[in-house]
Amino acid sequence: MKTHRNFLAAGTLIGDKVVNKKNEHIGKIEELMISLDNGNVAYAVMSFGGFLNFGNKFFAVPWKALQVDQDKKCFVISADKEKLKNAPGFDKDHWPDMTPEWAAEVNTFYEYNP
To answer: What whole-number distance in Å separates Cα of residue 99 and Cα of residue 30?
Structure first.
């Protein structure tokens, strides 16, 4: 029986691919956002693949909306491609302030209630 690790170095996750439940490639992890309040990972910043033609757009996904598949070395998100076309995003050169209002919008979109 294969055992899985309980901890991963943040740097090893940057660049990991993100797939949906249908195993379709969605994008990749660009950055991890850490909460200053509790030290936990709050969001993974993801870039979508070329299929959505978003160019330099990034998307913050609540950490709890992602699952790590250690066997496949990727992240899995339950949202499908059509839903993600409407995800709140931002330009990679102009990051949001990540205010509580911004967080509420992102969390609502991904149906996550912290």
So the answer is: 20
Give the model confidence (pLDDT) of 15-38 as tens digits.
999 999 999 999 999 999 999 889
**Six-digit token string for 95:** 């990051």
Read off the tokens for 38: 């509790």
Q: Where are the beta strands (DSSP E) in 1-114?
A: 17-20, 25-34, 41-48, 57-62, 66-69, 74-77, 90-91
pLDDT of 52 above 70: no
Among residues 105, 3, 23, 113, which one has the least CA distance to residue 67? 23
pTM here? 0.84
Q: Output the average pLDDT for the chain.
A: 87
Using CA atoms, how far residue 67 sits from 19, 34, 75, 79, in Å, is 10, 17, 6, 12
Distance of CA 63 to CAs 1, 2, 42, 71, 74, Å? 27, 25, 5, 19, 14
